[in-house]
Design a protein that fits this description.
Length: about 300
């Protein structure tokens, strides 16, 4: 899940006998992001309400074919479904808190269910991606959800941070899901060593470059070399590469030059409702900026030893 949910005002949820309206707090002034921290009673109540379907909404960030986008075809090929909660607490904090309460699987399942319920609103030929942990993938409720899905229209993103206790069992589960038509992406590739192990041991159809790899790829040759290597790996294994976190035209053009076929990010489109995402128009003057950046990027790439050539 992408962190940093949009501010949606004060939480308003129905309790058992009265309405609860409060600002939820889950603050970590010290310690690491993964350290167990106290979860407020208000957030606990809100998490339980979200699991029941109250206060949880989905927004969708468009995913584009970069080559098409650069020549003016701005139609998304798919959307990443992102959870949004009615509070100022960041999205990732909700899921960490749910894990601490022993409700992590239940909250993820609620988010997946909310996302797939919107499939009928997704234009034909496009897909949605949902973030799932191995525990959710191996759960019985998730199997029931999968049986109702349309083949090929849902892609699962397995996070680099996800802990997999039994790779053989998980490989078997993923293989069965792919036989049913679901597609699998390894998320956050480049964020740590775990993603490399996932790439080797988990059957998958695409990889998603972590935003720390994407950020600054237009001028950082180390990042260019990493992207080039991952593109070469994807070509050898017949998988796709998706870049997330694209924030500038220069990054976009550089990624396309390095062979990355697909991408998403604030520059291309912010998360929103499906209706708003499809109504969004490209920034004014983007065609001219595209040409200017492409010329400068191609010149730089021709000097760079990490360049692997234009996408074929």
């Amino acid at each position: 899940m992408l962190p940093g949910a949009d501010t949606m005002g004060r939480a308003q949820m129905m309790g058992s006998s009265e309405e609860i309206a409060t600002t939820l707090e889950w603050v970590a002034p010290h310690g690491s992001p993964t350290e167990d921290l106290p979860v407020s009673p208000e957030l606990t109540t809100a998490i339980r309400a979200a699991i029941r379907g109250s206060g949880l909404d989905m927004q969708f960030q468009p995913i584009f074919q970069l080559g098409n986008w650069l020549v003016g075809d701005r139609r998304p090929v798919g959307y990443e479904a992102l959870s949004r909660f009615e509070s100022d607490v960041p999205t990732d904090a909700w899921f960490r808190a749910a894990d601490q309460l022993g409700l992590g699987v239940e909250l993820e399942l609620a988010a997946v269910s909310a996302a797939v319920r919107r499939l009928d609103d997704v234009p034909a030929g496009r897909y949605i991606t949902v973030n799932v942990s191995p525990k959710v993938v191996e759960s019985l409720p998730f199997s029931a959800i999968v049986k109702r899905l349309t083949s090929g229209r849902v892609r699962l993103e397995i996070s680099e941070e996800a802990l997999i206790e039994d790779y053989e069992r998980f490989r078997s589960t993923i293989a069965e899901l792919r036989r049913r038509g679901l597609r699998v992406a390894i998320d956050d590739v480049g964020a740590g060593m775990a993603s490399l192990k996932h790439l080797v041991l988990i059957p998958h159809d695409s990889i998603k470059l972590d935003l720390d790899v994407v950020r600054g790829v237009d001028h950082d040759r180390n990042r260019q070399a990493m992207v080039s290597a991952l593109v070469a790996l994807s070509k050898a294994t017949g998988t796709q590469v998706v870049a997330e976190g694209i924030e500038t035209m220069s990054e976009l053009v550089s990624l396309a030059e390095l062979g990355v076929a697909y991408g998403q990010g604030y520059f291309l489109g912010r998360p929103a409702s499906l209706q708003k995402v499809d109504a969004t128009q490209p920034p004014t003057g983007v065609a001219e900026e595209t040409q200017n950046v492409m010329r400068s990027t191609v010149t730089f790439a021709n000097r760079s030893p990490s360049r692997v050539g234009r996408p074929g």
